[in-house]
Amino acid sequence: MKTEHAPTIRRADYQPLAWTVERIDLHFSLDPDATLVKSRMVCVRNPAAEEGPIRLWGEALERLSLLVEGAGPAAGTVREADGVLEIDAGGERAVVEVTTRIDPRANTTLSGLYLSNGGFFTQCEAEGFRRITYFPDRPDVMARYTVTLEADRAACPVLLSNGNLLEEGDLPGGRHYARWEDPFPKPSYLFALVAAKLVALERTVATASGREVLLQVWVEEGNLDRSEHAMESLIHSMRWDEETFGLELDLDRFMIVAVGDFNMGAMENKGLNIFNTKFVLAKPDTATDVDYENIESVVAHEYFHNWTGNRVTCRDWFQLTLKEGLTVFRDQQFSADMLARAAGPEGAVSARAVKRIDDVRVLRAAQFAEDAGPMAHPIRPDSYREINNFYTATVYEKGAEVIRMLHTLLGTEGFRNGMDLYFSYHDGQAVTCDDFVEAMAEANGVDLDQFMRWYEQAGTPRVKASGAWDAASGTYALTLAQHTPPTPGQPEKQPLVIPVAVGLIGPDGRDRPLRLEGESQPGATTRVLALTAAGQTFRFVGLDAEPVPSLLRGFSAPVVLELDETDERLAFRMAHDADPFNRWDAAQRYAERVILALAGGQASAVPQAFVAAFRALLNDAALDPAFRAQAAALPAEAYLLERMSPADPAALRAALIATMRTLGGALADDWLALIDAMRVDGAYRYHPGDAGRRALGNLALRYLAAAGDARGLAAASTRFESATDMTERFGALAALVQSTSPAREAALAAFHERYRDDALVLDKWFALQAGAWRWDDAVAPTLERVRALMADAAFSLSNPNKVYALLGTFFRANAAEFHAADGSGHAFWAEQVVALDAKNPQVAARMARALENWCRYAPALQSSIRPQLERVLAAPGLSSDVQEIVGKALA
Ligand code: TRP
Ligand code: ZN
């Protein structure tokens, strides 16, 4: 267990270690209750550091022996305190041998070595390796590993570790062994082993330079028929990285392993990626289009880490966004390219916009909220208590936006040149974000000093835009002003470099070529303006009429754009903006305005003008279905709560229900027509075009069910019964559950019956119920349902997927029910966070974050939440993980 009083770690305190490790030989004698780990390390003095002892971190280890240069260390040369073993050593090199005993079965944290369904698995990022053996467990120690695994052959016929298999064979007593060697030096967080009963889907493919490589997807025997899509995603990822960045797989073998108990999505261990089953397994009967899409992007993400993360890694954990922001950007670009390719030349622009919209939805709902609360931090944080708490939307998603801005400012070719230079300088090194940005600057001959503020400042910048039209000269003056609100510890903010992509739409709905004052020729219809000062005015000349500005096209920067626009203007942009992202965004802004007016009591009904604009966009047959589905989906509840002050979940929910009912009812005939028009014939295949049609069809069912339309409910019931794939079956079920239909309970029961042995499908079933709105007062509060579901045989507090599906959905995606006025949800939260913390602090801390923004809620809710936060903080033996979250919330 972590010490209760983990100190705050500061980025400014970074010091190189006096000793690092060059080579390590590991020997595992695997046993569920008592695994012996023998480690032999060649330690070397670090010429770049001051003198000091060898420092080895260790946690939850039983140390059986320690030898230095083959002998027991001299008296007084070894000390252990605060989880660090210090050994005084002379000379330039020292061989240290440690034997430890660990208990995988007792390890419920899922960090280090643990058991899942009888197999052994590891998770070492960020600081799990120290739970396996004593080691300088920091990413700036890159060593070469050889690993010998020994286990019972019947229980664990497959023995895997990083790199290449050297040998394998039998041992007495029904045991066997395998020896692996990783040719590339790596940090300890990329170490992995798997010993389990698995089977592999295999492919041999050639890399761009013609090397044959073996690809494997390892799953439990019954899941082989769900491993194909992951394999195809891997092959597509390899090709994409070769074509886009000239980056090739550097190993002879690349493995993906699926495990059912996993704290996060997946992990990029060198040559041996370990995945949550959720991001590997798919077949039409059990996985939705969205699952297929997520698998493709997570497989790509982990594969791309091989270069951005593994070959070039982080010097320290403050640099996490160096690998995560960059790798998320890469997986976003990959997915956009895959969608564009599937859509063909005419559909490519729209397909890319759909992907961009998905990514921006996540950013706005999760990262903007994070930036507005006590956990606000720059993409490169200055301090932390528990690094696992900093695998955040800010480090990942905002980090990816920062890389995207570099891409926008430097262009595709300039960005590629920067990447090439980065690898040429830093391959095989552990580096900082400065190293990355310096390579980008040098390759492009530009100064990115001011740009570095994106790495230093927390908070979501506001960009206020205003325009002035001078008819006499045909000049449109666009004034942009930036301001970043204060965040904890950062009262003052400096101006950032903000790329603002701009278009000007004429009264005819068409973009005007843009000519800035001083330019001789009009140019493109979308231009990127670099806003670098607190305020700047840009003058566009040569215009024939007053334009309608379309700003931040493609969401060119992770900011809140403040622009006064009338309803008419939003409707105009919904109909005419040439930038599909902004067309969607205009619809979202209009919807937000309508919903917040209802929630705030400034309006009592959804305005007709909004319904008309919505209808026009929905029925625009020139737009592809995936885009129309995005445009017709209301803004996320979490995002709307963020825009409300004070946040009032009950009022917001009532407004959302009213809006859904109005749109469902007023457009009932349109929705019914769409259900028919969007039907996809033939056997299921994962294809973005089909997925878009199914998404729009499912949305139509959703709106009709919300409105209680009898024809819609009948269509949902029929589809639920006759569907041949999970996207349609689950879409119909979701529509029924999110309605007052009497058919919903029977449908839930039938679904459970059909998939009672399928863990991943049951996660959907749990999540659907935990997230359900209450469409009529006859229905019991969702909390009662959640409590009952915790008693279901399939539920377990020890399995993160189950916890995220049931509790995570209730806490984070059902605000109105979670924040019930009687405070029952808050008390339940405290109870569950404390119970989870005893098993798995990382998962508990994620759940704990559900209440961090409690100060944004109305006073009555605050009075209900505070005592529960205090109760959790006072719980005996609370992990530093949860302490950090709740402590910051109460500070
Ligand atoms: N590096 C992983 C990724 O982004 C994230 C990850 C997987 C992780 N498992 C973890 C982070 C456990 C912290 C703890 O691809
Ligand atoms: Zn990652």
From TrEMBL:
Domain Aminopeptidase N-like N-terminal: 106-190
Reactions the enzyme catalyzes: Release of an N-terminal amino acid, Xaa-|-Yaa- from a peptide, amide or arylamide. Xaa is preferably Ala, but may be most amino acids including Pro (slow action). When a terminal hydrophobic residue is followed by a prolyl residue, the two may be released as an intact Xaa-Pro dipeptide
Pfam annotation, one family: DUF3458
Residues annotated as domain Peptidase M1 alanyl aminopeptidase C-terminal: 567-891
Keyword terms, alphabetized: Aminopeptidase, Hydrolase, Metal-binding, Metalloprotease, Protease, Zinc
Limits of the Peptidase M1 alanyl aminopeptidase Ig-like fold domain: 459-563
Keyword Protease included in the entry's annotation: yes
Domain Peptidase M1 membrane alanine aminopeptidase span(s) in chain numbering: 230-454
Documented EC number(s): 3.4.11.2
GO MF assignments: alanyl aminopeptidase activity
Cofactors demanded by this protein: Zn(2+)
Keyword Protease among UniProt keywords: yes
Top-tier EC class: hydrolase
Record family assignment: Belongs to the peptidase M1 family.
PANTHER family: PUROMYCIN-SENSITIVE AMINOPEPTIDASE
NCBIfam families, alphabetized: pepN_proteo (TIGR02414)
UniProt name for this protein: Aminopeptidase N
Lineage: Bacteria, Pseudomonadati, Pseudomonadota, Betaproteobacteria, Rhodocyclales
